[in-house]
Specification:
- Strand 5 and strand 6 form a beta hairpin.
- The protein is elongated and about 115 Å long.
- Helix content is 28%, strand content 27%.
- It is built from two helices and eight strands.
- By secondary structure, it is of the alpha+beta class.
- The protein has an eight-stranded mixed β-sheet, with no helix packed on it.
């Protein structure tokens, strides 16, 4: 009897792998990243400074904030116009700028608010004391007033130094 071929089951296409496990893993990874995100992005509160902390109207102050985690910050106050701070280094851990206090700023304490990344970002507020009176110019405010005696003594010392210098140079030239 002739050999009959054995019946083979019909060929079936391989089952496509279900995308469900991959989607489940992707969703779980995304949830894990989202849960860790606030912890990672939550920087310690930034620290800010205004230097000097006491200034007369028309004076300049240096503004500095560290720990923002952004490359920009905005500073607002009733004592001066809005200022945008720029990075002091490549990592943007230190942002700085300068401001001129209004010449008609009212004496007293003024709030200075630093906002990391601009409005709505992390913020910190420090105080700036505006003293009554105008900012001194010229000598930087280091000299109040001098009496006639002080001027005379200073002039005498300067003249003595000049005479002494000439005497030393002539003596050296003669030798």
């Amino acid at each position: 009897m002739p050999a009959t071929p054995l019946a083979q089951p019909p060929a079936t296409a391989p089952r496509p792998r279900s995308a469900a496990p991959r989607r489940l893993l992707t969703a779980a990874a995304a949830a894990l990243v989202a849960a860790a995100m606030p912890v990672t992005l939550a920087h310690a509160a930034p620290s800010a400074s205004v230097s000097p902390t006491t200034v007369a109207p028309g004076g300049r102050v240096a503004l500095n904030v560290e720990g923002c985690g952004t490359k920009v910050a905005r500073v607002t106050s009733t004592a001066f116009n809005e200022v945008r701070l720029t990075p002091g280094n490549l990592e943007a851990t230190n942002l700085f700028g300068n401001a001129t206090v209004f010449s008609n700023a009212s004496p007293g304490a003024h709030r200075v608010t630093f906002e990391c990344g601009g409005p709505g970002g992390q913020s910190v507020t420090v105080s700036l004391q505006v003293t009554p009176g105008a900012a001194r110019g010229g000598t930087g405010g280091s000299i109040g007033s001098m009496s006639t005696t002080q001027v005379a003594v200073g002039g005498t010392l300067a003249a003595a130094a000049l005479v002494g210098g000439v005497w030393v140079l002539r003596r050296r030239a003669a030798a």
